[in-house]
Amino acid sequence: MDNSIEIGIDGAQRPVHVNVQELLATRLLVQGNSGSGKSHLLRRLLEESAGLVQQIVIDPEGDFVTLADQYSHIVVNAGDYSEAEIAAMGARIREHRASVVLSLDTLEIEAQMSCVAVFLNALFDAPRAHWFPALVVVDEAQMFAPSAAGEVSDAVRRASLSAMTNLMCRGRKRGLAGAIATQRLAKLAKNVAAEASNFLMGRTFLDIDMARAADLLGMERRQAEQIRDLDRGCFLGLGPAITRRPVSIRIGSTRTATRAGTHSLLPLPSAEPADMQTMLFANLDAQPAPSPAPAPRPVAAQELMERFVAPAEDAASPIDDGPPSEPAPAIDPEPVVIAALRDMLADPACGFHAESFLYQDFSVRCRMQKLRQVPLDLAQFRRRFALAKAGIFDPAEPQWHDLLDAATRLPDDMLAPFLLIGRAAMEGSPCPDDDALGAAYGTRSPGRVRRLVEYMERQGAVVVRSDFGGRRSIGIPALGLSTEAE
C-alpha cells in the first residue's frame, strides 16, 4: 500500500509528496498570515489522504464542511449539542473510526474553546481498544492554544490549552496525530508548536515570525527574507514526512471549496446613480421586513452518533411531527434525580470531572426522562451530588438528619468525604481509605487527602486515631460514633 500523497510541486515542477504513515508519527505545523493559503493546504492534505486514514477536523469558521459533499465526512454542528453530547460523540468517533468535521462557526470564542477542550479530551480518553490512527486537523490553532491570556476566562483557556498540549505531546501513543495551522507562531503556545517535526511555512511579514520560521526550517537568518516573498499558496516545507532539506512547494488544486465568499474582483453594477438611489431608498416604509430563513432542523445527538457506525448510509429523512398531542402528565422529579445520580456514579471517573460538565450531563439525563425543566440548579446539584458520592441518595430520610447537621461546620467541597466517613461510622464499617476519600473529594493526590483529614480534625468535625499496627479509625464527635480500624 502506497502511503504517500502528492500535495503540490516544487520550483523545478517536480511533484512533492507527503508520507502519511510518517506524518502520523511526527505531526505537522502550518504557519502563514491570513490569506497565505493555509486552509487551501489543509484541504488538499485532507482530500488526498481521505482514503488512507481517519480524519477529525476542528473547524472554527465552517470552512471544511464541504468535504462531506464528496467524501464520507460527517459534519457535527457544535452549537446544536451540549458538552455531554459532544463528549459522547468524541468517544463514538474513536470507536467507529468515523471521519468528522466539528464545525464551530455558530459559537463565540469562549464556547469554541470549551467545546474543543471537551471534544479533544474525549478523543484522548478513549479506551485502549479504540486507539486507531487518526489525523486531527486544527485550523486557527492559536485560538485554542494561545501563548498568552486573552479575553476569555483563565479556566477556559487552561482547559483548551491542556487539551491541545495532550494532542500534540501525548496523542501519538493513542493514535492521534495533530496537524495544526496558525497565523503566527508567536501567538501559539510553544509547548504545542514544539512537538511538530514537519513544517510548512507560508508567507509572513513580521520579523519575529520570519526569524522563528527560519529557525524551524534550519535556515540562516539572512535567508528568512524569502519567507516574506512567498506567493499565496506557496510554502517552504521540511520534515521527515516531506523532505530532509527545505523545499519550496506550490500547493495543488482541490476538488472541494469553501462556502465563503469569493476574493476575486467582480464588475460593478451598471445602473445610473439616480436609478441606484431609487432602488435603495424608494418605498422604505411600505417594504415588508424580510422574514428570516427557517433554520435547519438540528440533528439529534443519538441520530448523529448512529451515523458514525454507518457513515456511508444516507441521513434519515426529517420526521413529521404531526398534529400536536395532548400535554404529557406531570412527572415526579425525585425518582428521576435519584436514577440520574446513580447512573452518573456508575462511572468510576465521574467524581473527577468539572462541575459544569457534570451538571450538563445531569441536565441531559433529566431532559431525556421528559422533565419540562431541570429540577436542580447548579448549587442544589452540587450538594445532591456530594451526598450521592457518599451513598446518600435521599437526604429526606430521617436516619441522615444528625449526620447532615454535623456536616454544616465544613465547606461544601468537603461534604462528600465527611459524609462517607460518617456513613461508615454509622454502619460500623472500616474507615474509608485514601483512594475512596480522594474519589469523593475529586483528587488523586494522597497529600491533598491527608491535608483534608487534618483540616476536618482541626475544625472538630472528626477525630483520627491510629493504632500501633498503623490502622486508622475516624470518629465523629457529634454522633458519638467511630469507624472500624482499617
UniProtKB/TrEMBL annotation:
Domain Helicase HerA central per the UniProt entry, residue ranges: 5-74
Gene3D superfamilies: P-loop containing nucleotide triphosphate hydrolases (3.40.50.300)
Database matches in Pfam families: DUF87 (PF01935)
Protein name: Helicase HerA central domain-containing protein
Organism field: Sphingopyxis terrae subsp. ummariensis
